[in-house]
Amino acid sequence: MSFNLSEWALKNRALVLYAMLLLGVMGAISYASLGQSEDPPFTFKLMTINTQWPGASAEEVSRQITERIEKKLMETGDFERITSYSRPGESLVMFMARDEMRSKEIKDLWYQVRKKVGDIRHTLPQDARGPFFNDEFGTTFGNIYALTGPGFDYAIMKDYADRLQLALQRVDDVGKVELVGLQDEKIWVEISNTKLASLGIPLVTVQQALQSQNAVADAGFFETPSSRVRLRVSGEFTSVEDIRHFPIQVDNRTIKLGDIASVYRGFSDPPQPRMRFMGENAIGIAVSMKEGGDILALGENLDQAFRELQLSLPLGMELRKVSDQPAAVEAGVGEFVQVLIEALVIVLLVSFFSLGWRTGMVVALSIPLVLAMTFVSMKYFDIGLHKISLGALVLALGLMVDDAIIAVEMMAIKMEQGFSRIKAAGFAWKSTAFPMLTGTLITAAGFLPIATAQSSTGEYTRSIFQVVTIALLASWITAVVFVPYLGEKLLPNLAKRDASGDVHDPYQKPFYQRFRNVVEWCVRYRKTVIGLTVGIFVFSLLLFSLVPQQFFPSSSRLELMVDMKLEEGASLTATQEQALRLEAMLAENELIENYVGYMGSGSPRYYLSLDQKLPAASVAQFVILTRNIEEREQVMDWLEEILNRDFPMVRTRVARLENGPPVGYPLQFRVSGEHIPQVRELARRVAEHVRDNPHTQNVHLDWEEPSKVVRLNVDQNRARTLGITTAELSTALQASLSGVAVSQYREDNELINVEVRGDSHERHALGLLGNLAVQTDSGRSVPLNQIATLEYGFEEGIIWHRDRLPTVTILADVKDDALPATLVSQIMPQLEGVRADLPPGYLLEVGGTVEESARGQKSVNAGMPLFILVVITLLMLQLRSMPLSLMVFITAPLGLIGVTFFLLIFQKPFGFVAMLGTIALAGMIMRNAVILVDQIGQDMDQGLSTWDAIIESTVRRFRPIVLTALTAVLAMIPLSRSVFFGPMAVAIMGGLIVATALTLLFLPALYAAWFRVKEEHAPATHNER
User: Fold this and answer.
1) How far apart are the C-alpha atoms of 957 and 940, rounded to whole Å?
2) What is the DSSP code string of 223-255?
3) What backbone torsions phi and psi does residue 127 show, to the nearest 5 degrees?
4) C-alpha to C-alpha distance for 576 and 774, rounded to whole angstroms
């Protein structure tokens, strides 16, 4: 190519200097304004459709509501899975969109789902409420505060929580502010059923009187000649006292409501899901960040608002931090920046020691330039700083100096051989610029499968590809434009002449002589070298099965999650009793920084990868914060011990937070089929096999125990004779037991329900149910057991479906350090017996971590053909020879040798991130091979025989290849300590070390064997380069 960019750069030094300064300033500004968050932007492709049908059993809800909605949703075709549960009176369908759908297509899909379910609304039971849709699952409430105040009731606390909510909503960068654990106020009118019966007052009379008294009705207006005068009728309730003194007319007598009923102000009973912080009732204030915001800036703004709001609270009421994501991010970003600086120092030391002070300085100055260009591009493409992009920056750091090292090394060598600075720079461009660009693009192509991975896992890790590609392209531009300029300014006069005045050839030093002999031996005994390499490669493939497998490692966050689940159908009171017992134990442990309990539901999503619990009376969850990782592990062991010892009747689970998309229990097996008893029977057999494995614990089915039920078998003839209908009977029972809202009491901006129910004694004594007085048409009352017989029994408390089939999931945790993938491979062969007994149409599937990992893996594998096509195309463009391109391509998998040995030596698992590293490694290996093969071609063009060209090129490329590999490997050392990126760093270190040795020893042998090169030496007339 006639145009020489490096020579042009040296002829236009002022422009190059201006560009360097401009980029430096832009880079600094871009870095300061990049959004920071804990996790990359991530779309939750989940929508829930909730429908209520009061009074229906779980089976009726499943048949009449859930199945209809599921059937309609399947018509969209765009689902990964449709799961649902039906509880008495409630149906919840979870629609999970296809993994490969892009984030921007999701909104359209949600519209389709709403439309389709809307189309079948008329086919649902008439008295069903809903369906209600929720598609805002991904909101992460990074900051959660607890408002506590011993002695203050929920009404006063809610009043202050509303004010705080309004104040926080005005803070910069705040997205949503939600209140958690609120208890609705109620005005209870409790009337003894027996008292009403003895006075002959029908309950309906009381309800109707209250309803009609407090209604808001328009009384009209007078239209006078000059103005319009409205009429307002008094009588609406303005205080609880008004309700107490409310007169009720019965058979020509008037009774005050307070004489026959107890009227008082209270809260939901049984309580709604509630939150407790450090052993006190609390209202949670959950704050999320605006999209694209900076979490650290949000943290500072919130801290300032937090300090001001503290002062506005009354004495005894406190606002305390429960979850502080900005602090976690600051620690995480701080740790990564430290890793980045360590890696930077290592790269600089390698450059200075191996290239000398002034040559090393050229490489050192190129790094800030590459980083500046990277930050400018990240700002342009809207890539923020989070744990994935920061890890990618450290990963790129070892690779981004490669081009600079190759360019400056070539310049230095040429100057040693007597070239002028401009000619040396021009020669570096001619001989290395394009092989280097091809190498850079091939390395970037190594990350292509991540970019094309159409899955939630792919979306989570996509910024690795984006950041590394940007950094690599920036490094090539720096190497061909800025390095010649820096080299011209900084390189010393390197030409060494001997006594006769001839230039000294740097490749005749004793070290190079010895290395030349080694390469010559490899080329001569090529079959031995190739045989050995292939042997070691096959051996490493066999060894690879011993490398532990995982999906994503646990998070380094300091929180622990404790889940408590009582039997299906347990009351919230029973759940709270168990949760309060655990709370008392937590209060005594010194290692715990703080703890927060959620009863009747799970924690809000304060961390992206949280596996959220759906509200249920039998569920409680604690989030426990510790001070550091060591203490977290100690607390975890202590919790497992006390939960096993002191809570035998409760299903409990202690878990660290996860990385990557949320999965829940690591081990999951699903049995699906048409008939629930048969599915459950098969599931119990699977559970037995899972329990038999010594590394599993907490093995259970997600639904097995039935709920208690009392069936009232009404004698229809007798009921009709007395003028009692089934609907009236159900309403009367509900009014006596749970309470019926008859009116609303208006206070300021609050609407408080007035509810009528039986007194406490009647509500809690199941044995007295038969004596309950039921009103007849004539106003008389008869005991319930005269018109109905009571039958005690059981029914399904919950029914789970997956893709319309009843599905029982066997869930289990992993003991000690075993990894889910290893356990699944041990358990699956034992399940063959169960699989053989599956009736047609029944399914046994693996779920959990292994399924998610396989989905992620599959989406990455789908990008492999593109990766191969791009790489081979780039090789063809550079080498213009099919055999040469194929030969270079064959070297790509050899890095696996190093990956396997290093992962085994350092006991690191091969997870999703390590797999991405291994794919990227193939690109790094081929890059070195391309540069070496291209050099051999250039040497042959200069007149060297093929034999000499192979050996001389290998000797000449020795220093740049070893140096670039050394910087990449050593720069990975700080990253190898990271929980998330550690396995990837170790895999790349091992792979590169082995691959470098193979490029320098195996590739010359392969080249010689491939082209059947014989030992011939060209006459030494050419100018030795």
Assistant:
1) 15
2) E-SS-EEE--------SHHHHHT-EEEETTEEE
3) -90, 15
4) 33
Which residue(s) pair with 46 in the sheet? 96
405 C-beta neighbours (distance < 10 Å), count: 28
* CB neighbours of residue 310 within 10 Å: 12
Non-local (6+) Cβ contacts of 841 within 8 A are: 673, 674
User: What CA–CA distances, in Å, run from 679 to 246, 688, 691, 805, 846?
Assistant: 57, 14, 18, 10, 15
> Which DSSP state fits 273?
S
- Residue 23's contacts (CB-CB under 8 Å, 6 or more residues apart) are 369, 372, 373, 376
Burial of 98 (0-12, 13-18, 19+ CB in 10 A): middle
Burial 194-217 (b: 16+ CB within 10 A, else e): bebbeeebbbeebbebbeebbeee
> Tokens at residue 84, please?
């649902």
The encoded tokens of residue 495 equal: 């030409």
pLDDT of residue 25: 94
Sign, CA torsion 19/21/24/29: negative
Measured CA to CA, the distance from residue 812 to residue 796 in angstroms comes to 23
Q: What distance in Å separates the CA atoms of residue 446 and residue 452, rounded to the nearest whole number?
A: 12
Inter-residue contact 617 to 571 (CB < 8 Å):
yes
What tokens appear for 181 in the block? 């654990």
Residue 563 bridge partners (DSSP): 621, 653
Cβ atoms of 548 and 909 within 8 Å: the answer is yes
Query: ω into residue 666 within 30 of 0, thus cis?
Result: no
Which pLDDT value is given to residue 665? Answer: 86
CB 183 within 8 A of CB 154: yes
Phi first, then psi: what are they for 414, rounded to 5°?
-65, -35
Contact between 991 and 899 (Cβ < 8 Å): yes
CB 882 within 8 A of CB 876: yes
Across 243-325, the runs of DSSP E, i.e. the strands, are 247-250, 253-256, 261-267, 274-277, 280-289, 318-324
Concatenated DSSP letters for 1000-1025?
Answer: HHHHHHHHHHHTT-------TTS---
Report which residue type is found at 764: H
Q: Quick one: 424 exposed, middle or buried, by C-beta within 10 A (0-12, 13-18, 19+)?
A: buried
The residues, any chain, with a CB within 8 Å of residue 539's CB and separated by 6 or more, are none
Interatomic CA distance for residues 894 and 926, integer angstroms: 10
718 backbone φψ class: left, alpha, beta (φ>0; ψ -120 to 50)? alpha
Residue pair 664/848 in contact by the 8 Å Cβ criterion: yes
What are the φ/ψ torsions at residue 389 (nearest 5 degrees)?
-70, -30
Tokens of 571: 């009351």
- Using CA atoms of 356, 361, 362, 366 in order, give the dihedral in degrees to the nearest 10: 140
Q: Which pLDDT score is estimated for 490? A: 81
Structural Rg of the chain based on CA atoms: 37
Which residues make Cβ contacts (< 8 Å) with residue 212, sequence separation at least 6? Answer: none
Nearest 5°: phi and psi at 163? Answer: -65, -45
- Please tell me the distance from the alpha carbon of residue 6 to that of residue 14, in angstroms, as a whole number: 14
> 648: how many CB neighbours lie within 10 A of its CB?
8
Q: For the stretch 692-727, what's the b/e string if a residue is b when 16 or more beta carbons lie within 10 angstroms of its beta carbon?
A: ebebbbbbbbbbeebbeeeebebeeeebeebebeee
Mean pLDDT of successive 10-residue segments in the chain (1025 residues)? 78 90 93 82 86 91 93 89 92 90 86 92 89 85 90 88 90 89 89 79 79 76 87 80 83 82 86 89 91 83 88 88 84 80 84 81 88 92 85 80 83 81 84 84 85 80 88 91 86 63 66 86 89 92 83 80 88 91 91 91 84 85 90 91 90 85 85 91 92 89 85 87 82 81 80 85 79 75 85 88 92 82 88 88 88 82 87 88 88 88 87 80 84 86 86 86 85 82 87 89 88 74 42
Query: Which residue type does 280 have?
Result: E
